[in-house]
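stuck on this:

***
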Amino acid sequence: MVSCEMSRGPRTNRTNGEEHFSGMTSAQLVEMSPSAQPSHTMTAPVSPVPCGVFGPSLSPPAVWPPLDFALGALACCAACVFTNPLEVVKTRLQLQGELRARGSYQIHYRGVLQALLVVGRTDGLRGLQKGLSVGLIYQGVMNGVRLGSYSYCETLGITSFHGGSLMAGAGAGALGAFIASPAYLVKTHLQAQTVKAIAVGHQHNHLGVSNAFVTIYRKEGLIGLWRGVNGAVPRVMVGSAAQLATFTSAKDWVSHSQWFSPSRWLTALIAATISGVAVAITMTPFDVISTRLYNQPVDEFHKGRLYHGFSDCMLKVCQAEGPLGLYKGMGPVFLRLAPHTMLSMLFWDLMRQQTVNHNQSQGRS
């Protein structure tokens, strides 16, 4: 009987969607290989059965690379639909009490669940999905650029060197974050907007996604659409590096502990949870700074009224709110990471397998 095993052997072609979600090679993440037949068995060798994230695949994936990247981006967009309410809550928590000492401001949001209830009760169910459309644009553009850039690095052989995957993943993430920065800017503005009773941070009062883009462009020019990018790039670089360093080792550890079958989706869930803790701890300070830089108001010279840049924002937050101010919103950051990772991999695996099956049926016909 052929089973799927975790392997860290040579790099092969991309065999499942985990690589495309986190910017890691398939050999590092979840490269599967058929188990060897017992030495006492005299039967003929069994043909390898490729294994996907959630179980054996019926055939080797043969997806056109540009389509491969598109499916990965689409999978992240699908996951965003389910995790966007946590993004809304995270943004509100990170803006609450901006540059004010603890106890000197009214607290509207006291935790993830309470914040979800407050937003849902005040803004309605639509309020929990604020910024969804532009969030989907961000996910599609950022992941499309990130996956394509990482694949190119892999083709050049950069990932074959020691630490190459870490550098390529961080670099590809930084490029994706830079190009998709205008979408993240608008998403932050829209998710922070709410009624005066529970408003936190600066209220930009955009009428919608297109109005936000047009308003920012008219007031600040093309450069204004990239305001705050100096906080977004290190945020994605640190997040990608942390995920890259922890997800592989966590998945290997869970698999080798023999708690579950290596092909079980629960193994990937536990690894994603462990990775989520590491990413939440390392990325939350950068996430807070990024949110503050994106949402701050600007003066007549198109300069930020509150912060002059990344280091200035970090210093002011620590001085006014203490070091823990950099960890505001850590709860929803963590709660979003694990389900977003798992949903992305699940949707990615299903869409990719459907594409392979369609190609096979077209070939037989």
